[in-house]
Design brief:
alpha/beta; UDP-N-acetylmuramoyl-L-alanine:D-glutamate ligase; 5-stranded mixed beta sheet; globular
Length: 326
């Protein structure tokens, strides 16, 4: 039996969530619904503009793959997360937050610098827009892979956002190759329509010939496969992955387990914050398939979990909410 159900690789970010208006986004020249990389000065400037808008959401360790690994652990999966934090207050907080959720990680490599930060702006329609300062996460590299932990894992999970950093992309490619060498299944998330639009070649390198499991939302799937409807996208996705899950928001998800394509109905929810919905879906799904559930059962749990997360602020659920969903 593998020691870890899921080994994750991705950015280490500390999230701050803020409610904003659409007018604010246009005035500040921020593209709605996408993740945009910014420098620290720009992030500080935006925070100063919005200091009266801070939502009372708890500071949390974030980053896309981190949110998924955290969710999988809270559902009951054994997990390991490789990332890069600095020797600052946020770096210590990040590792402590993961440890509290039962996620294993390398605590020893704290370098001088600034831990990454993500400014998550939520508009009244519940759409999330992110401005991210990667900080030391930008230099995440092959050196940050823990080969021993990877070898002892059932799945290696990679976030598509790593494509934006030269060293991060190289680490993602190396992790996939190492996983393939050691018989560890590979899973990757396309992460964001902006990644698909602007970093397609890099994502193709990260995917290699084929991954075992690919996660995407509808916009990402259509953009990646250059198709105009979900049926065509599902057909085209088979070139890139042995199995896949495409989320359709309130309409649920399409899942392909390698043999059968299934539509899994969504769960009604009053959305107030879509931040973390895709991450939660992936985390719940990975937990379920490593616990022996079918893809349809996994998507059913993942849809419920994502519906719960969009009906409250923040990308995470409380520990007890996972147990209720189970």
């Amino acid at each position: 039996m593998p020691r870890y159900h899921v080994y994750g690789l991705g950015a280490a970010l500390v999230d701050t969530e803020i409610e904003v208006t659409d007018d604010f986004l246009s005035q500040a020249n921020i593209e709605k619904g996408l993740m945009t990389l910014v420098d620290e000065a720009r992030q500080t400037e935006l925070l100063d503009h919005m200091k009266d808008h801070l939502v009372g959401s708890k500071r949390s360790s974030g980053g896309s793959a981190c949110n998924s690994i955290y969710a999988a652990a809270c559902f009951g999966a054994s997990t390991y997360y490789s990332c890069k934090v600095a020797d600052d207050n946020n770096g210590t907080f990040f590792h402590d937050d993961l440890a509290e959720a039962g996620v294993s990680t390398d605590q020893s490599k704290h370098e001088s610098g600034t831990t990454g930060k993500c400014l998550v702006m939520i508009t009244p329609d519940a759409e999330r827009t992110m401005n991210t300062f990667l900080g030391i996460s930008e230099t995440l590299s092959i050196e940050n892979i823990n080969i021993d932990a990877l070898k002892e894992s059932e799945y290696a999970y990679i976030e598509g956002y790593l494509v934006t950093s030269d060293t991060g992309r190289a680490a993602a490619i190396e992790l996939r190759k190492l996983a393939e060498q050691h018989g560890v299944k590979t899973a990757l998330s396309l992460s964001d329509p902006g990644m698909v639009q602007f970093f397609g070649d890099g994502l193709a390198d990260m995917l290699g010939d084929k991954v075992d499991l690919l996660f995407a939302n509808q916009d990402e799937a259509l953009g990646w496969t250059k198709t105009s409807n979900i049926e065509e996208a599902c057909d085209a996705m088979k070139q890139y992955a042995t199995s896949f899950a495409i989320t359709l928001g309130k309409d649920g998800a399409m899942v392909f387990d390698g043999i059968t394509l299934s539509k899994v109905e969504g769960v009604a929810a009053k959305a107030i914050d879509t931040n973390g919905a895709g991450d939660m879906f992936a985390g719940a799904f990975l937990y379920a398939i490593t616990a022996g559930k079918s893809y349809v059962e996994a998507a059913s749990l993942a849809n419920k979990a994502a519906a719960q997360v969009v009906s409250q602020y923040g990308p995470r659920l409380k520990a007890e909410q996972h147990q209720v969903l189970l």
